[in-house]
Amino acid sequence: MAFDHRKYAPFKPVAKKDRRWPDAVIEKAPTWCAVDLRDGNQSLIKPMSVAQKQRLFDLLVKLGFKEIEIGFPAASQPDFDFCRKLIEENRIPDDVTIQVLTQARAELIERTYEALDGAKKAIVHVYNSTSTVQREQVFGLDREGICDIARNGATLVKEIASRYPDTEWTFQYSPESFTGTELDFAADVIDAVTGVWRPDQGQPVIINLPATVEMSTPNVFADQVEWICEKIQYRDALSISVHTHNDRGCGVAAAELAVMAGADRVEGTLMGNGERTGNMDLVTMAMNLYSQGVDPELDLSGMAEITEVVEACTEISTHPRHPYAGELVFTAFSGSHQDAIRKCLARRKDGDVWNVAYLPIDPSDLGRRYEEVVRINSQSGKGGVAYVLERDYDISLPRWLQIEFSKVVQSEAETNGGEIDSHTIHHLFEERYLKVAKDWTLRTYNLHRDDDGVRADVVVGADDTSVTLEGRGLGAVEAVSDALTRRFGVSIAVEAYDEFALGEGTKANALACIRLNANGRLCSAAALAEDTTSATLQALFSAVAQEVGEQMPEIMDSSESVSA
Ligand code: KIV
Ligand code: ZN
């Protein structure tokens, strides 16, 4: 059997009974380090050109990143050239520190410093693999052998740095494949490295704990981080960094729990680009903090520009449901969601803490518009359709018409199989409810009120063939219905009727909506007009026309008139 879970062994949890991180709350952003230009770039089908790297670097600076890993200059000529370009062309702002990666190998470390010559400040990031599988199967070395590689690398990093006294150096060490390394051994290697660098004596040092491969649930990674923070020497003099990958889809969760467990710094990439399933997504983690009221210390308000630049540089498109950045993440198609969003947004006042159902953050914070929030397809209900008409056309529908019209929209969506835009919704509404047949155009009306009610004289029809109708009733609608009954023999009972004044800036001042039972058939119509009475009477005529016919029929009883 090919699909056999017995091929795999469960990850052993950390035997830690005193874990404190589950009670921790993140109240401050970690130090961010963007590794898009190194780890992200190394994972691309087509690595970035120098121009693309420059564009992405400039974006990262604009967003507020203060530490940016720009490449692996000893391993790649374009990375070397890009590093030189940044330094020689003075393109690194004073408050930004570039970081470069190198393996713990003498010739690579030498070349790395050549690339950094002239930098005001820089982080030299040295790594070697420490995991059991790498030791045993890739390097064929025991723990001591691996520890020697790390210690020798650290020694060389320190030695060569002293030849460049004008640069402010930070040293960073990663026990690569940390998550697959026995914790006691990881602590030994880290201690061997910091024993050389001596952060306690003033040398800035970062210890980066990579989940090179995400191997466990994020809580286990948090245990590993907390364990290391407790066991290694010079903890207080060090910055503990984490670098998570997303193999199990939990790269962000793992980094968040790691910060709860004591990590000071987080490495990742915009949109999570990186090897295999990617690196930790900086946008998601930063926005998660933002949505909890924590300043992410990054400015992600121009999300459209971020996705545009990342897509242009990586040639990877953004998934439409990518957290915070995707095209559809602030869109509701479901009717009940649309309804809830509409109600919450209507109640919201300026200055209120954000508390809107289905929208974890205010889309406008990311440069997205409310207009994008509600979109209509066949699953949308009355709320969404009503919201779109109100938002874009200032047309408010009564509930009974919302229900009726949403069925019209739904059937159109089912027929065309996709999304229905606001223009189409309006067009459907016009066609179905607002269209006025020539023969049923209201020309003039006169309403006379007396003790018995209202007497109506109404002129309706095309210019040359208009007719005068007369009727009586308790109100205008009843009087005109009576006139229609007398003239055309149609029995009319009004089932629902609503009128609305329209907002400023619209041609018409009033909208009337009516549903009537005409000869036992339900007919609904709406009308826009300058005053509510005209709108009401026109809606009544349009509804009756649905039963009687668009062309006005021969008059049934033209001799009958109404007594005054
Ligand atoms: O994923 C990883 O382990 C790395 C290291 C080089 C930090 O990218
Ligand atoms: Zn990595």
TrEMBL record:
GO biological process entries: L-leucine biosynthetic process
GO MF entry, a single one: 2-isopropylmalate synthase activity
Keywords, in A-Z order: Acyltransferase, Amino-acid biosynthesis, Branched-chain amino acid biosynthesis, Cytoplasm, Leucine biosynthesis, Magnesium, Metal-binding, Transferase
Gene3D superfamilies, per the entry: 3.30.160.270, Aldolase class I
Subcellular locations according to the entry: Cytoplasm
Pfam families: HMGL-like (PF00682), IPMS_D2 (PF22615), LeuA_dimer (PF08502)
Region annotation (Regulatory domain) ranges: 436-564
SMART domains documented for this protein: LeuA_dimer
Domain (Pyruvate carboxyltransferase) ranges: 30-304
Gene field: leuA_2
PROSITE patterns to which the protein is assigned, alphabetical: AIPM_HOMOCIT_SYNTH_1 (PS00815), AIPM_HOMOCIT_SYNTH_2 (PS00816), PYR_CT (PS50991)
Family: Belongs to the alpha-IPM synthase/homocitrate synthase family. LeuA type 2 subfamily.
Catalyzed reactions per annotation: 3-methyl-2-oxobutanoate + acetyl-CoA + H2O = (2S)-2-isopropylmalate + CoA + H(+)
Predominant localisation class: cytoplasm
Pathway: Amino-acid biosynthesis; L-leucine biosynthesis; L-leucine from 3-methyl-2-oxobutanoate: step 1/4
Name recorded for this polypeptide: 2-isopropylmalate synthase
One of the record's GO cellular component terms: cytoplasm
Described function: Catalyzes the condensation of the acetyl group of acetyl-CoA with 3-methyl-2-oxobutanoate (2-ketoisovalerate) to form 3-carboxy-3-hydroxy-4-methylpentanoate (2-isopropylmalate).
Binding, Mg(2+): D39, H243, H245, N279
Lineage, broadest ranks: Bacteria, Pseudomonadati, Pseudomonadota, Gammaproteobacteria, Pseudomonadales
